[in-house]
C-alpha cells in the first residue's frame, strides 16, 4: 500500500480530527511525509479539513454522485457511473443505447470539446453524458446544444445561486472564465436519415481548486465552489434539474422559446470578435442569434453572415 493510501485509511478510521503527529507515529513516517500525502489526496479530490489545534479530518470523499440516488431522482433513465473513463460521450457512442441513459464519471482522461479540443477533467468536476433516443432532423443538433446550455445555466442559477453567461455555442462562463463545456454528438439512422440518438456531454468545474489545472488553463477557468470547504449543494439535484429540463425542451420542439433565455445570457451579442473559419480569420461584430441558433455577425466590409457551430471558432477581441 502506498504512503498516500495508508494516510487515507488512517483518516477514514478516525472518528475525530487526528493530528499529523499521531498519523506519523502510527505509520512510522515523518510529519513532512504526512503533509505531502494529505496534499496529494486533496489533489485527488478528497476534502480534508485542517482543524485548528486538533489536526486533520476527512470531511467528504469524491465521487460527487451516487448511482442509486440518481436512479431514484431520474427513474426513467438507466443510470451508470464509473470512477475513470476516457470520455463519457465516447463510451455512449460506442454502446449506442436504445433507452434513455445517463453515464457519469469521477474523472476523464480524454474529455472532449467542440472542434476536437480537449476538456481537462480532474476529480472534483461534474462529468456526465445523456443519451436520448429520438427522431429529429439532423440540423436540430445545434438547437440541442443550445437547449443544454440554457438548462445548465438555469440550473446553476436556481440550485447553486451561480450566475453564468453563454459563449456561443457551448461554453458557460462565470465572470470572464470558463466554468462549463457542452458537447453534443449524434448517432444517425441510415434508414430514416434522421438523428436517432442525441448524446449530450456536460462538464462542470464544480468543486475543485484551480491549481489542479495545467498552468496554461489556470487563468482562464473557474470553479463553482472552493474545494477546501464542504460542497454547499446537492449535485444530484443539479444533474436531475439539467437532465429533466433538456428532455422537456427537446420534447417541445419546434417551440424555440428557450432561445430568448439563450440570447439574454449570451456574452457575445454586441461584442467585437475574431472569427476563425478554416485557414481564414477576420474581425466582426456580433448582431444576435437567430431562431436556428446560428450566430449573426457583420464583417468589416458590412456583409452579414449566419454561422453554424461546425464552421467557426470564435474569439472575443480584447
Distance between the ends: 51 Å
Which CATH top level class of the largest domain fits?
A: Alpha Beta
- What Rg is obtained from the alpha carbons, in whole angstroms? 22 Å
Q: How big a fraction of the residues is strand? A: 25-35%
Q: Architecture of the largest domain, according to CATH?
A: 2-Layer Sandwich
Q: What level of helicity do the residues show?
A: 25-40%
Residue stretches low in confidence (pLDDT < 50, at least 5 long) are none
Task: Kindly state the number of beta strands.
Answer: 14
Order of strands in the sheet with most strands? 3-4-5-9-8-7-6
Number of helices: 8
CATH homologous superfamily identity of the largest domain = Bira Bifunctional Protein, Domain 2
CATH fold assignment of the largest domain: BirA Bifunctional Protein, domain 2
Give the total of domains: 3
- Average predicted local confidence, pLDDT: 90
* Sheet with the most strands, sense and barrel status: 7 strands, mixed
SSE ordering: HHHEEHEHEEHEEEEHHEEEEE
Structural class: alpha+beta
Shape: globular
Amino acid at each position: 500500500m502506498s504512503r498516500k493510501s495508508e494516510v487515507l485509511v488512517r483518516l477514514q478510521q478516525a472518528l475525530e480530527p487526528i493530528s499529523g503527529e499521531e498519523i506519523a507515529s502510527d505509520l512510522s513516517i515523518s510529519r513532512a511525509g504526512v503533509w505531502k500525502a494529505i496534499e496529494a489526496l486533496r489533489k485527488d479530490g478528497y476534502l480534508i479539513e485542517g482543524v485548528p489545534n486538533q489536526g486533520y479530518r476527512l470531511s467528504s470523499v469524491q465521487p460527487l454522485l451516487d448511482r442509486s440516488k440518481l436512479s431514484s431522482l431520474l427513474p426513467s433513465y438507466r443510470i451508470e457511473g464509473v470512477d475513470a473513463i476516457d470520455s463519457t460521450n465516447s463510451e455512449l457512442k460506442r454502446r449506442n443505447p436504445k433507452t434513455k441513459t445517463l453515464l457519469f464519471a469521477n474523472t476523464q482522461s480524454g474529455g472532449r470539446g467542440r472542434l476536437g479540443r480537449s476538456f481537462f477533467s480532474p476529480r472534483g468536476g461534474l462529468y456526465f453524458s445523456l443519451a436520448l433516443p429520438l427522431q429529429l432532423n439532423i440540423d436540430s443538433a445545434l438547437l440541442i446544444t443550445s437547449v443544454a446550455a440554457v438548462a445548465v445555466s438555469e440550473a446553476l442559477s436556481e440550485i447553486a445561486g451561480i450566475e453564468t453567461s453563454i459563449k456561443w455555442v457551448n461554453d458557460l462562463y462565470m465572470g470572464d472564465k470558463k466554468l462549463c463545456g457542452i458537447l453534443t454528438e449524434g448517432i444517425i439512422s441510415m434508414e430514416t436519415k434522421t438523428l436517432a440518438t442525441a448524446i449530450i456531454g456536460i462538464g462542470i468545474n464544480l468543486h475543485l481548486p484551480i491549481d489542479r489545472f495545467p498552468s496554461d488553463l489556470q487563468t482562464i477557468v473557474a470553479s463553482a465552489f472552493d474545494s477546501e470547504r464542504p460542497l454547499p449543494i446537492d449535485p444530484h439535484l443539479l444533474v436531475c434539474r439539467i437532465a429533466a429540463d433538456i428532455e422537456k425542451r427537446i420534447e417541445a420542439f419546434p417551440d424555440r422559446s428557450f432561445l430568448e433565455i439563450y440570447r439574454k445570457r449570451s456574452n457575445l451579442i454586441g461584442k467585437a470578435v475574431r472569427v476563425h473559419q478554416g485557414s481564414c480569420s477576420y474581425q466582426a461584430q456580433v448582431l444576435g442569434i437567430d431562431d436556428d441558433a446560428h450566430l449573426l455577425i457583420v464583417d468589416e466590409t458590412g456583409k452579414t453572415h449566419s454561422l453554424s457551430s461546425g464552421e467557426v471558432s470564435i474569439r472575443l477581441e480584447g
